[in-house]
Design goal:
The structure holds two protein chains of two kinds.
Chain A lengths: L1 E7 L8 H12 L4 H21 L2 E8 L3 E9 L6 H5 L8 H5 L7 H8 L2 E7 L3 E9 L4
Antiparallel strand pairs in A: 1-2, 2-3, 3-5, 4-5
Chain B lengths: L2 H8 L2 E2 L12 E4 L3 H7 L4 E5 L5 H9 L3 E4 L7 H10 L3 E3 L4 H12 L1
Classes of the chains: A alpha+beta, B alpha/beta.
C-alpha cells in the first residue's frame, strides 16, 4: 500500500493534517495501537519540521505486512550539522515559531525515540530527507 | 473521573461545546512546548497549557488526550475552537495559573 501527502512549509494552520490523515488510515487497518502511537509522534514531528524550516514537503507512506516506511522529503535550507540537530534542546527555529511552543529542540529526539529506524539525509540549500521505519511485528 | 465532574468541581469554563461529557480523565500533563507534550503526555490525560493556537488540537488529537485546559484566562483563537469541536476535544478555560490548576487536578485524581 502506498499513499502520499503534501506539506506546505510555513503554514502552521495546516501542521499535523497529513499526520492525522495517516493515523486515521492506520487505525482503519487495525494496526497495533502502540505502534500507531509511536508512528503518530514521529511523523508529526517530521511534518512540523517541514512546516517550521522548509518551503515544501512530501510525505510518502509505504506499508506492507512487515513494516511501514514514512519518507518525508522537503525542499528547504537543509541541516548544516545533523549531529547538533539530533541533540535535545538544539533548534534553529525562529522566535515566532518558539513562541507557539515549537522549536524546543525535541523534534528529532522524539522521532529517534519512537521510530525503529531513522535515516536522515540533508543537503544545504537543497533540502532534507527523513526516512522512518517501523516494524509491525517488533516488540 | 469524567470530564464533566472535573469541570463542575473546578469551575472550568467550557470554551468548546461538542464533546463527550463522560470522557474519562486518567491524569494530566502541564507544558507549553508542543514537542514535550508529543513526547511525554499519555492518552486520556488532560493537557494544561497557555498555548491557544490551533496546533494544540492537532497535538491533543494525535496523542488522544482527554481535554485541554487553557490557563490564566487566555482565550483561544476562533479556529482553535472550531478544530476542537471537529475533533470533539473538550477545550476548557480557567482564571488560575498552571501551577494552581495542575495542583487541583492532581488532588482530585490522586
Amino acid at each position: 500500500m502506498h499513499a502520499q501527502y503534501e506539506i506546505q512549509g510555513g503554514d502552521f494552520t495546516k501542521a499535523g493534517l497529513a499526520s492525522s490523515e495517516v493515523k486515521k488510515m492506520l487505525k482503519q487497518l487495525n494496526l497495533d495501537p502502540k505502534i500507531i502511537k509511536r508512528i503518530a509522534v514521529a511523523m508529526y514531528e517530521a511534518e512540523v519540521n517541514v512546516v517550521a524550516h522548509a518551503y515544501h514537503g512530501i510525505m510518502d507512506i509505504e506499508l506492507n505486512t512487515e513494516k511501514i516506511i514514512i519518507k518525508v522529503q522537503d525542499t528547504g535550507p537543509g541541516i548544516a550539522d545533523i549531529d547538533k540537530a539530533m541533540e535535545e534542546g538544539f533548534s534553529t527555529a525562529s522566535k515566532e515559531v518558539r513562541e507557539m511552543g515549537f522549536g524546543a529542540g525535541m523534534g528529532l529526539p522524539n522521532i529517534k525515540k519512537n521510530a525503529d529506524e531513522l535515516i536522515l539525509n540533508s543537503k544545504i540549500n537543497k533540502g532534507t530527507e527523513v526516512k522512518l521505519v517501523f516494524y509491525l511485528n517488533h516488540q | 473521573m469524567n470530564i464533566i465532574t472535573i469541570i463542575d468541581k473546578l469551575g472550568l469554563t467550557q470554551l468548546s461545546e461538542i464533546f463527550n461529557p463522560e470522557q474519562e480523565i486518567n491524569g494530566g500533563y502541564t507544558s507549553d512546548l508542543l514537542s514535550d507534550v508529543m513526547g511525554n503526555a499519555s492518552e486520556g490525560e488532560v493537557w494544561i497549557t497557555m498555548q491557544t493556537h490551533k496546533n494544540i488540537i492537532a497535538v491533543a488529537s494525535l496523542k488522544e488526550l482527554a481535554a485541554i485546559i487553557i490557563v490564566n484566562n487566555h482565550k483561544p483563537e476562533k479556529d482553535t475552537i472550531e478544530a476542537a469541536e471537529k475533533e470533539q476535544i473538550p477545550l476548557l478555560g480557567t482564571n488560575n495559573g498552571a501551577f494552581e490548576i495542575s495542583g487541583e487536578i492532581y488532588n482530585l485524581l490522586k
